[in-house]
Design a protein that fits this description.
Layout lengths: L1 E6 L4 H10 L1 E3 L1 E2 L10 E8 L12 E8 L11 E6 L5 H7 L6 E6 L8 E2 L1 E3 L4 E3 L8 H5 L1 E3 L7 E6 L3 E3 L4 E6 L5 H10 L6 E7 L4 E7 L2
Parallel strand pairs: 4-10, 9-11, 14-15
Antiparallel strand pairs: 1-7, 2-13, 3-6, 4-5, 6-12, 7-14, 8-12, 15-16
Length: 215
């Protein structure tokens, strides 16, 4: 499975770290761009007296909660986001600095179990609210609303700051608007065994696609 990490070149030291140290940085979930990140709904079935359901017709009480309400150490919950979608113009616009950045192709073959595929739905996820039914952080953080479905996101969710990807970087793709200065810089900091491609606009299908090999 090939996934893509979109990056701006404004802080090129972060790109250098990925390419040279062969690792991905995982950030705290509160740093992610979705304001509903980590928010979920809990459901309790109550009886007419306001107690949990006991031999009476119940009604359901929905309460919004956040990952921090699960009483876990948030410092131990780190996320790295990747995408299975290379060609959507919105991904390049949002995460590759309006096409002035890059996409790094990473091969996750044989380690797919390390990934959490994000599942999308029209509403916030709903979980129970007991010791047995409360979710774990990775269950909440691998669910998002349909607004983000185009991202086709996969996540690394772990307690460490970095996830090693030794020998798994397969290519670097430059955005439509990458400057000649950054092109030359990328050629210098990208290991010689990793090819660099430019991208082009597919005007028929309104997609971004790989074009010629730069190196």
């Amino acid at each position: 499975m090939i996934l893509y990490k979109f990056k701006s070149l404004h802080n090129i030291e972060y790109v250098f770290d990925i390419l040279q140290n062969q690792r991905l940085f995982c950030t705290k979930y509160t740093n992610l761009n979705d304001p509903f990140e980590g928010v979920f709904l809990t459901a309790i079935h109550m009886n007419v007296l306001g107690f949990p359901f006991i031999n009476q017709k119940p009604y359901k009480v929905i309460t919004p909660k956040k990952v921090e309400d699960l009483h876990i150490e948030l410092e131990q919950t780190k996320v790295c986001s990747l995408s299975a979608n290379f060609s959507d113009v919105r991904l390049w616009s949002l995460y590759a600095d309006s096409h002035k950045g890059i996409a790094i192709a990473i091969d996750f073959s044989n380690i797919e179990s390390k990934l959490h595929e994000v599942k999308y739905s029209a509403k916030l996820p709903e979980f129970g609210n007991t010791i047995l039914t409360s979710p774990i952080p990775s269950e909440v953080l691998s669910k998002k609303t349909d607004h983000w479905k185009y991202e086709a996101e996969y996540r690394i969710i772990q307690d460490s700051d970095y996830y090693l990807i030794n020998d798994r970087i397969k290519a670097v793709y430059t955005g439509q608007r990458v400057s000649s200065f950054h092109i030359e810089l990328l050629k210098k900091i990208t290991p010689v065994e990793i090819p660099i491609y430019i991208t082009r606009l597919n005007t028929e299908n309104v997609l971004i696609e790989s074009d010629k090999l730069l190196r």
